[in-house]
UniProtKB/TrEMBL annotation:
Positions of the Amidohydrolase domain: 6-365
PANTHER family: IMIDAZOLONEPROPIONASE, PERIPLASMIC PROTEIN
GO MF, one annotated term: hydrolase activity, acting on carbon-nitrogen (but not peptide) bonds
Family matches, as InterPro entries: Amidohydro_3, Metal-dep_hydrolase_composite, Metal_Hydrolase
Protein name per its UniProtKB record: Putative periplasmic protein
Species this protein is from: Salmonella enterica subsp. enterica serovar Wandsworth str. A4-580
Top-rank lineage group of the source organism: Bacteria
Amino acid sequence: HKRRSRGIRVERDAKGSATGKLFGDIAAFNQLFASISSNADREGGLRQFFADMNARGVTGIIDPSAGPAAAYEPLFAMRNQGDLPLRVGYRIPVQPEAKGHEAQWFSNLMAFRPARADDGQLAFLGLGESLVAGMNDGVRMTPGFSSSEQDKTALRQVATFAAKRGIPLEIHAYTDDSADTILTIFEQVAQQYDLRPLRWSIAHLNTGSPQTLERMRKLGLAYTVQMGPYFEGLAIRDANPPGATDNSPPVRLALDKGLVVAGGTDSTRIGIAGIWHAIEYHITGIASGGSVRKPASERLTRLEALALYTRHAAWLAFAEQHRGQLSVGKQADLAVLNQPFMTMPEDRIDTIRAVLTLVDGRIVHESPDLNAGQ
């Protein structure tokens, strides 16, 4: 195929033949594979996506709002129609026009909003995951990230505003260096405000160190792990000191320190949204194509991996009293799976699908296989 997106580099061998590897950034790959929705089909596309999530047993998601505000209009319309087939939490990210006055922008935005709100279908969960553009290290693999004093001041102002108002937030940090800078700022804010009730979290943290996780624990921060290292294992290995991939992402370390670790899949343009692939990865420790494997001591048990995407995710949404576990008194959000998660081969977990999915006791997905043979 002759078509190639700008920004994509094709790796070739000594004979000039393509090896099958492509290199480039997210925007370039989006142009290769993504079809940009028109306004007319946004709601249809969202409904199709939610149906696919229900078919995988997903009953709720948290979206840290990586897209433009207009992308949420179909979501709000579905909620108003009583048509949401799963529970959705969302956060508000900084927008380009806020550059240089981020704290004031968030203050204006929140002037007529509560710190958080949840009507049972749709939950506003504060700010994130981009709060100040210059503090975001993107998908950087190597150590050495730094930000300007102006950007650090801006983040301190945003964090102080959020802490004073009691607003939850999530912030992006791919590398330990980025997290170090963020935590220094949060520690300064914590001298004036108790962050523990706010359930702030750091996302990604692919190369997070024990020292960083300990600082997070002391502040009461959570960790939202994503799928980056599944795809980027080789890049992380090559860009960091030996042994970096043994605990990338550092989920085992975080759990052992007592942090709440909520499981994510990252954006649909760079991750696999159906959760089971991510759960399998935490259990096997095997990155894409077998490129990297974590030692057994850094992997999770099946119940630990499942908890990231159930109990811990519900906690992050301030909803642990209502869902996240199958127990008396909680909402009937559950899925009947087509394979036995606890006993099936671990390298087949990604093939799990739901034959029946309920949200608040209402059937939102029913597989034809459910009644087969009856």
